[in-house]
UniProtKB/TrEMBL annotation:
<dbReference type="InterPro" id="IPR052389">
    <property type="entry name" value="Sec_Metab_Biosynth-Assoc"/>
</dbReference>
<dbReference type="InterPro" id="IPR049449">
    <property type="entry name" value="TesB_ACOT8-like_N"/>
</dbReference>
<dbReference type="InterPro" id="IPR049450">
    <property type="entry name" value="ACOT8-like_C"/>
</dbReference>
<dbReference type="InterPro" id="IPR029069">
    <property type="entry name" value="HotDog_dom_sf"/>
</dbReference>
<feature type="domain" description="Acyl-CoA thioesterase-like C-terminal">
    <location>
        <begin position="127"/>
        <end position="257"/>
    </location>
</feature>
<feature type="domain" description="Acyl-CoA thioesterase-like N-terminal HotDog">
    <location>
        <begin position="29"/>
        <end position="104"/>
    </location>
</feature>
<dbReference type="InterPro" id="IPR042171">
    <property type="entry name" value="Acyl-CoA_hotdog"/>
</dbReference>
<dbReference type="Pfam" id="PF13622">
    <property type="entry name" value="4HBT_3"/>
</dbReference>
<dbReference type="Pfam" id="PF20789">
    <property type="entry name" value="4HBT_3C"/>
</dbReference>
<protein>
    <submittedName>
        <fullName>Thioesterase family protein</fullName>
    </submittedName>
</protein>
Amino acid sequence: MDGFGEATAVTRVDDGRYEADLDAGYGISGALNGGYLMAVLARAAVDASPHEHPVSTAANFHRVAKAGPARLVVDTRKQGRTAASSLVTLVQDDRPVVDALIITGTLDPATEPDYAAGQPAGMPDLEECTDVRPPTGDSGFADQVDMRFDRTTMGWLDGQPSGRPEIRGWFRHRCGHTADAYSLALAVDALPPVALNLGAQGWAPTVELTWHMRAVPAPGWLAVHGTGRLLAGGWFDEEVEVWDTAGRLVAQSRQLARAPRAHS
């Protein structure tokens, strides 16, 4: 397996019981990325299912996950002809870190949509976007994912937030991993928090994130569009759409997160 495949691998040790070695490379400011954790959870859910794809995931994040050993418990709730569901829990230090209700199904890559809304406007061509990396060598997550951002949505980096809760960018794995279902789990949580463009700063811990896999992605870059609706009382929402090189909506998500502390 390549880097991302190895980093998200799970090993079955018993019926509904798995082990994983969580990779520090997917950390941001010491906390493992939520999308990375959902990819690990999804691998366990799919392994325990008769179906190939995690079509719906509703994850609750209870505490920060650490790099290193973790256990995954898959509690199957239903196995049907077209869908199966399970509650998957990631455990460290004998405490639940993430719970996710995951519904699996099998999507046909050749399926054409009966209806599809157009791709959101505003995404520049790849060549017009910028590769933003942390100023220090300890970049962690940025070493794993290659992201090229729409410059007009990155004003917060220069202390000039746009005032609009939106960030857009292109996404792929630096290791060359071909885009798949687990890539989509990572992509929906790969953007910087949209609240940064409202003057917030710092880490924004996700409390709940629900995402849907809508199609099997074509190889190549993924276009990731993030927007928000409300920042209030220390909470904000973020909605993400992911589109592939064939112009198809392949994933969508909504999360509720704690807002970073605003500039004083």
